[in-house]
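Anyone have tokens for Lipoprotein? Sequence:
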Amino acid sequence: MRRAFILLVLLVTACEGSFVRPEDYGRKVEINKSYEARDTCLKQHAVDGTAGIDATTVASTAAHACQSETDRLITAANPDRDSKVTASIRQDTEFRAMKYVLQARGLRSNETGSDQVSQSTVTRPAD
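Reply: yep, here.
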């Protein structure tokens, strides 16, 4: 019985490292902080001058103004410096900037918890 217990303890402790890695947890926290900082920056810049300027221009300006936050997010989330990951994060920044601009203008409804664009902002491609 004692041998079985020792064998069980050895098996469990040998696999322990594969389930929880402290460095992954720290990295996850850093990524979450970076996302929050970037999104806060985008929200602040999305309301600047939204009245008479095109939404795309405001979103692009907001994304550019938050470049340092985006770069920190890329550094935290992409330690291997994969160009596809970098491009995806930059595209997400542009998308979120547009989302916050539309929210600031009251054109986006987030009451149901989903990101639905109101019918007034939908444009259909020409056939």
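Helices lie at 2-19, 22-46, 55-65, 67-77, 83-104.
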